[in-house]
Amino acid sequence: MNAVVIYLLLLKATLTSFAGMGSLPQIRQDFVETRGAISDQQLSQAVLVGRATIGPMGAYVVAIGYFAGGWLGAVAGWLAMITPALIAIPLLALIQRWLHLPRIRAAVDGVIIASAVLLLGSGATLAIDAIQQLMALKS
Amino acid sequence: MNQTVGPSVRELVTAVAYEANRTVGGGLVTIELLRRRFSARGWLDAASHGVFIAISRFTPGTVVLAYVVLLGWRYHKWRGALLALAMASVPASVIVFALAATLARIDRYAAVRALLAVGILVASALVVGSAWHLIRPYLPRASRLRLIVIAAVAVALVVLGATPVRVLLVAAVMSAALPVRSTES
């Protein structure tokens, strides 16, 4: 599969997700179902490798890129992973410009509080997942 | 946001490279480790961290990468942002590439799976600690109503299966609509 196509497909998936593994449904749709570029087994291997590795979970897209297009595909996957992060810079500029307004400050406060709730949910999910793995190993 | 003394480029790169590449369990753990390191050195205040978290959550893609871009940008603009982004993403990507290339099946061995599970358990504790740190500034009486209302709505939306972005958008709109007290930060 062409590295440029891999980049564009993975970029579409990362741009429409807001967490490391959030891009998974879109990637499965494009790479497994629509194009048949990788198998479900390869998708599972990519997820496993991403979870077992240091750093962001989103790095599993590098493995997707590799399975779909070799080392050039892996580079395309890395580029697709890092490109959306640069959007944070104009967002910061916008927030800083308007942060002195009480309503904008209140909206940011709301996002921070909701982020904490989402973090608690993520922490609980991770803990439950780990406990289930340990119990499965024990039995 | 308060302006604090920041790290040199070398200190920034070293800090991001070290903290982003020593844990499994995802970027939320890395963010908490970065917060601790930067706060301990007086480089990052709680308000700036909160804003960075909020923006990172609203940025598409991987949350921790957006966070390190903001850290790098704050202290050294494009140079800092790109170097921090590279430090947080290249080592993990190289390892993922190597593992994928050799088709390593690291979960075949029980000891590896157990070690990974314990690592993730520790990571989950760090993530919960990060959530507590975000909530703590809103515990004083002046902000408590906002905290209770927004947290309750966010929990309800999560339970109903709303996506994180929808939860954040509703929280932003609701919080902006609540009355703002002059004593609130």
* Unreliable spans of chain A: none
Biggest interface, which chains? Answer: A-B, 77 and 96 residues
Number of β-strand runs of chain B: 0
- What letter string, H or E per element, gives the SSE order of chain A? HHHHHH
Distance from N terminus to C terminus of chain A (CA atoms, Å) equals 43 Å
User: Could you tell me the strand content of chain B as a percent range?
Assistant: under 5%
Number of helices of chain B: 7
Based on helices, strands and strand pairing, what is the structural class of chain A?
mainly alpha
Q: What is the average per-residue confidence, as pLDDT of chain A, rounded to a whole number?
A: 85
How would the blueprint of this fold be written?
The complex is a heterodimer of chains A (139) and B (185).
Chain A: H1 3-15, H2 24-34, H3 40-52, H4 60-82, H5 88-98, H6 102-138
Chain B: H1 9-20, H2 27-40, H3 46-58, H4 63-101, H5 110-135, H6 141-159, H7 164-177
Helix pairs in contact in B: 1-2, 1-4, 2-4, 2-5, 3-4, 6-7
